[in-house]
Specification:
heterotrimer, A mainly alpha, B alpha/beta, C alpha/beta, A: mainly alpha, 21 helices, extended, B: alpha/beta, two-stranded antiparallel sheet, 15 helices, about 15% strand
């Protein structure tokens, strides 16, 4: 006891700074001790959950397969299905089990179609999983809402349309994107009408996802993309250009040609590429005429167009550019010249052996 | 000299040291808090993303993986196989064989049915010339692969060759011995496609340590904690740096480094700034600083992004000699980069890049080992002169030590609560113990290597190319 | 129709379980692989009568599996490939390498059974 008191006195004689340092050290030590113990607890739980997850996954995959194949048969199969549903139902109030069932379901939903997809959807309704998704829409956290919308999209739940459409102008872009994806997933091209009013940029990532969804449908009857090509929202124009290319919108050529004078370079380049794809011969003379006013990227794209749509009368124009200072343009010019006038190319080839770019001549000469 | 003046000077020095240590610690805490927030935000943002959704899209932007190889004959065939098995539709792989003296090329030709093809290179970046030429596979199953055999010019030169040849919009520069997780490219490309209010110029990934992990057929099967104490300590170090440091810099848009082991770049900008610098040992840090500088000077809004998921696994040095030479090189790389771009320092023209990230890097990364060494020397002098006030020294040493242990443990938490890679029973306890040991088994060597790096940089200019023993090309910065 | 050996390479575990269940009911013997490498091992060791493989698989792709069967092993067994939407190019390559049939995901398992039986008869 005396020793103890002595220590305290000794400590209190130290200057303030030292006292403070020791006090903080003491605090740290306690923190380290507590955190170490808690780390053990966390790790234990994570491990346990993971093991349980594995066990349940195996169990549920088997159950699911059994369920899906039960409907082919008799009354007996029907009762079996009922039993499976009630079994799953009893487990899903637990969050991680619900997550697992969901992931098994939509992993499969991605890969199968027809009757089987329908029975997965039935299962989704009957087990009450859908109700959990619907309550997510009312959550105050944006990421929970986004998750809920994503889930309803994957299972193609139309009833929730009324609730989900309200999120189309949500302040978080993630929520908006999920909403857009939902619309397109359920209503295909009709779901794209949100583009008419869209003020916010449509990111490249979302565009790709939307295209991906659209390509999955068998019915590829596209709607009118004209208003989007004329949109004031540049990202909508870019998206419409992708649609024009994928769905071969030959009838859009006039608008595309107008777009060649769009303010944005990125759009102009993209238009040239789409026109190349759509055999936009009409654009050729126009671009040729003001070739020198184009940016270098547009010039390169234009030569890409020429490579595909060249006719013998383009020869003088091509010839003008076979010594273009841009590598890509020169290469394309030589390649094109070779295809339309082999003799001239060979003649040049001989001449140029000691001039500039002999390597390129040789290269173009060698390729078939 | 007047004794009172000396006393005042010494007093000032004391305060400076104290202020330095205090602000360093404060900055760690602040960065850790920001990192925690950003990580949570990241996980929320990605909790509902299904990366498979964009997996098969042929409209997805093209990416070229550029992997320079130098005398990698031992593993090159397996490594390439792993690079070819990424889950992304629109990508290709360029292996740049940088004048290897071994039979790497022959092995690749044999394993992948390669044949020489006619190829003309648009030399936007000046590089060493081709040696045997450009090779592609006859087997359509390996259509993504291209092998370029060139004369030796170093890693930066090899990467520049890859940049010249690539026809993609984006390039992923990677060490050939890195193991990529299957959806690595999707995750790394996402920031480029997703951010609409700024131009993303590069995305960096986390590097994880693959020593002792089970890798079969180019796939990570099982994650283990290595037995080797040095490697183990580096795991802790990487966790701290990546989870508690870099994530915060990503939030502040102040990342100065993307690991040379794995980073994705906007190719056009990488070429416009002149590609990799062949005159530095720190080309991976240097190119990011230069790209940032370029964007700032052009007045364009930009971002360097960062993905915390464990996507890239690589071997860390497992003996002190190689470790020290690696860190020596990192130090020189940092010095060279900072010196080359010193115009940025404290220059308000460069915004937060000039006023925050560059100075931070200079003061707390570049100068830290020097300050520490000076401190140790000063302390030694005091010991000799018997001037040490032990009650101070002891209390602050203990405090500093406990802080570092606590900080490591916090980094363990951030790992457990996010990616939880070390799942095995008993590993947690080992990692905590390691947090207590690491200040003794790793830090002194890092310090030593950094001091050596400084000495080599200033007094030993010939030592430009300290090579790692086994590998020519491991990254200069993690 | 006799009992046939079929190798399926598919990394989605639920789907492969489903297909196994379905095809076993048809009286076939099923060998399951989760990636191309396992598939090749199974094919070399078991000499199956038919192979079903996904195109996109970790490590060894479906294309490589086909190339291995046709070129390295020189087997004439029928091969069916799965592909996702938008992978037309891959499908073309698969056919070039010697695949016999393909099914785009999502597909109907019943249709797969019909195609399998047709190729085996």
């Amino acid at each position: 006891m005396i020793d103890y008191q002595y220590l305290i006195d000794y400590f209190e004689e130290f200057p303030f700074l030292i006292q403070l340092a020791w006090r903080i050290s003491g605090l740290f030590l306690v923190a380290i001790f507590l955190l170490t113990i808690y780390l053990k607890v966390i790790r234990y739980h994570l491990r346990k959950k993971e093991n349980e997850y594995k066990v349940f996954k195996n169990q549920y995959e088997a159950l699911l397969v059994e369920y899906l194949y039960a409907d082919e048969e008799s009354e007996e199969a029907h009762t079996k299905q009922k039993a499976i549903i009630s079994k799953i139902k009893s487990h899903i109030p637990i969050k991680y089990k619900r997550k697992m069932v969901l992931s098994v379901l939509y992993n499969l939903l991605n890969e199968v179609s027809g009757e089987m997809a329908e029975s997965i959807k039935t299962l989704y309704y009957e087990t009450g999983l859908i109700d959990y998704a619907l309550t997510k829409l009312e959550n105050k956290n944006w990421y929970v809402i986004a998750k809920g919308i994503g889930e309803l999209r994957r299972f193609k739940i139309e009833e929730s349309y009324g609730d989900i459409i309200n999120f189309i102008e949500h302040s978080k872009k993630e929520v908006r994107n999920e909403t857009q994806l939902y619309l397109v997933n359920l209503f295909r091209f009709d779901g794209l009408t949100f583009l008419n009013e869209l003020k916010t940029p449509l990111s490249e990532w979302t565009q790709l996802q939307l295209l991906e969804v659209l390509q999955k449908f068998d019915d590829q009857q596209i709607c009118d993309i004209k208003p989007w090509l004329k949109s004031k929202n540049d990202s909508v124009v870019l998206f419409a250009l992708k649609l024009a290319q994928i769905y071969n919108q030959f009838e859009m050529k006039d608008i595309l040609i107008e777009l060649l004078s769009h303010d944005k370079k990125e759009i102009r380049i993209c238009v040239i590429e789409v026109l190349t794809h759509l055999y936009g011969i009409e654009a050729k003379e126009m671009l040729k005429a003001n070739f020198n006013e184009l940016s270098i990227e547009e010039q390169i794209s234009f030569f890409g167009l020429l490579e595909k749509l060249v006719v013998p009368s383009d020869e003088p124009f091509i010839e003008k550019h076979i010594f273009h200072k841009n590598f890509e343009i020169q290469l394309l010019a030589l390649k094109i010249l070779k295809t339309i006038n082999l003799d001239k190319f060979m003649g040049l080839n001989k001449l140029s052996s000691n001039k500039k770019a002999p390597v390129m001549f040789k290269f173009v000469n060698n390729i078939s | 000299m007047d004794t009172s003046t000396v006393k005042i000077i010494i007093q000032i020095i004391h305060y400076l040291f104290f202020a330095y240590a205090f602000s360093a610690i404060l900055s760690y805490i602040i960065l850790a808090i920001i990192s925690g927030k950003e990580t949570m935000e990241y996980l929320k943002r990605n909790s509902f993303v299904n990366y498979k959704d964009i997996l098969s899209s042929t409209m997805s932007p093209s990416i070229t993986i550029i992997a320079p190889a130098y005398n990698e004959s031992l593993n090159v065939v397996e490594n390439v196989r792993s690079l070819l098995s990424n889950h992304y539709v629109n990508y290709s792989v360029i292996i740049v064989n940088d004048g290897s003296k071994d039979d790497s090329l022959e092995k690749l030709i044999e394993a992948y049915d390669l044949e020489k093809v006619d190829y003309i290179i648009n030399e936007k970046l000046k590089t060493k010339p081709l040696r045997s030429g450009v090779f592609k596979s006859k087997n359509p199953a390996f259509e993504k692969l291209m092998v370029v055999d060139k004369e030796n010019g170093g890693k930066a030169d090899a990467l520049n060759m890859g940049l010249n040849i690539s026809t993609s919009k984006y390039v992923a520069c990677i060490d050939v011995d890195c193991l990529l997780i299957e959806n690595a490219l999707q995750k790394m490309i996402k920031p480029f496609l997703e951010v609409t209010d700024a131009k993303v110029i590069a995305t960096g990934g986390v590097i994880r340590i693959a020593n002792s992990c089970v890798i079969r057929g180019g796939k990570l099967i099982d994650v283990n904690l290595p037995k080797n104490l040095l490697v183990r300590s580096q795991i802790l170090e990487y966790l701290r740096a990546f989870l508690l440091g870099r994530m915060a810099w990503s939030r502040l848009n102040g990342l100065l480094v993307i690991s040379g082991a794995f980073g994705v770049f906007d190719k056009k900008i990488a070429i416009d700034v002149g590609g990799y610098d062949t005159n530095t040992v720190g080309e991976d840090m240097e190119i990011i600083v230069r790209m940032r500088r370029y964007m700032e000077e052009q007045g364009r809004k930009y971002k360097v992004s960062y993905i915390p998921d464990p996507l890239c696994w690589t071997e860390a040095p497992d003996n002190y000699k190689i470790f020290i030479s690696q860190r020596n090189r990192w130090t020189r790389g940092t010095i060279e980069t900072l010196r080359k771009h010193r115009k940025i320092a404290f220059n308000p023209k460069y915004g937060s890049f000039g006023l925050l990230s560059y100075p931070y890097w200079l003061i707390f990364e570049r100068l830290a080992p020097i300050v520490e060494t000076v401190g140790i020397l000063y302390f030694a002098v005091l010991v000799i002169l018997k001037e040490v006030r032990w009650e101070y020294a002891l209390s602050f040493l203990v405090l500093a030590y406990l802080f570092s242990v606590l900080f490591s443990i916090v980094s363990l938490y951030s790992e457990e609560l996010t990616f939880h890679q070390y799942k095995k029973k008993g590993t947690g306890y080992k990692l905590v113990l390691l947090s207590a040991l690491e200040p003794f088994v790793l830090h002194p060597f890092i310090l030593y290597a950094a001091v050596r790096g400084n000495i080599d940089y200033y007094f030993n200019k010939n030592k430009k190319w300290g090579e790692m023993k086994r590998k020519g090309f491991t990254s200069n910065t993690a | 129709m006799g009992k046939h050996k079929i190798v399926i390479a598919e990394d989605n575990s639920t789907l492969s379980l489903l297909l196994k269940f379905r095809l076993e009911k048809e009286g076939h013997e099923l060998l399951m692989a989760v990636d191309g490498k396992e598939a090749i091992e199974l094919i070399e060791n078991n000499k199956p009568d038919l192979v079903i493989t996904d195109i996109m698989m970790p490590f060894v792709s479906g294309l490589e599996v086909i190339s291995h069967i046709r070129n390295k092993l020189a087997l004439e067994i029928p091969i069916i490939v799965f592909s996702a939407a938008g992978q037309e190019e891959m499908v073309l390559k698969a056919f070039k390498l010697g695949a016999n049939d393909f099914m785009g995901k999502p597909f109907s398992p019943n249709e797969l059974v019909i195609r399998v039986n047709r190729l085996l008869s």
